[in-house]
Write a structure and sequence with these properties.
- The protein is an alpha/beta fold and 180 residues long.
- Helix 5 crosses helix 7 (164-170).
- The chain has a five-stranded parallel sheet.
- It has a domain at 9-131: Rossmann fold (3-Layer(aba) Sandwich), CATH 3.40.50.620.
- The protein has helices at 21-33, 53-63, 80-87, 102-115, 135-143, 154-162, 164-170; strands at residues 9-14, 36-42, 70-75, 91-95, 120-124.
- Helices cover 39% and strands 16% of the residues.
- The structure holds adenosine-5'-diphosphate (ADP).
């Protein structure tokens, strides 16, 4: 492959349950660095997600519709590295927030390198205002009747207010349950 002529395609994977402005910040940064970004929305069966895969994909599509080099695809029933190979991607993008993300993200990057040595994981750091923002936190705020405007795209804020009772029943789907 000729490094200087072939476009660099990056995959940004996640469960995006739901997409937050922190994710959007990372997407914006990545879209300025790489030629094409594919957002891989994971089925995440183990996570008991609040939103269905289709809902999560629709929110992401709406949030990124102004970015010309960003596509949104489902990641279902296959390894991320195999998805990357199929899409011709050589980079996996992940976002790093506070120190708490490090261990999990290093483990993921390590295992993906073991599975496919030619795909590099690149970490991007969000703007300071999103450094502590997590989808689980946003879900908890919405459950308790707080405002999530400014933390998530408007389409997500509306959906969260609508789903308030359901979030109460299901929890935030996060292992490190927050408490506000
Ligand atoms: P996963 O289910 O794989 O943890 P998430 O949808 O929670 O996926 O997040 C996808 C990626 O985006 C992860 O690398 C996560 O660390 C990153 N991320 C999530 N929220 C933020 C944020 N506020 N700022 C920067 N990166 C973030």
């Amino acid at each position: 492959m000729d490094r200087h002529t072939s476009p660099i395609i990056a995959v940004y994977p996640g469960s995006f349950d739901p997409i937050t402005n922190g994710h959007v910040d990372i997407i914006k940064r990545a879209s300025g660095i790489f030629d094409k970004i594919i957002i891989a929305v994971a089925e995440a069966l183990h996570k008991n997600t609040l939103f269905t895969l289709k809902e999560r994909m629709d929110f992401v599509k709406e949030a990124v519709r102004d970015f010309e080099n960003v596509e949104v695809k489902p990641l279902q029933g296959k390894l991320l590295v195999d998805f990357c190979k199929e899409e011709g991607a050589s980079i996996i993008v992940r976002g790093l927030r506070a120190v708490s993300d490090f261990e999990y993200e290093f483990k993921l990057a390590w295992i993906n390198r073991r599975l496919h040595g030619n795909i590099e994981t690149v970490f991007l750091i969000p703007s300071e205002e999103y450094a502590y923002l997590a989808a689980s936190l946003v879900k908890e705020i919405a459950t308790l009747g707080g405002k999530v405007d400014g933390l998530v795209p408007p389409v997500v804020a509306e959906a969260l207010y609508r789903k308030k009772e359901e979030i109460k029943r299901k929890g935030t789907g996060d292992a490190h349950e927050q408490s506000l």
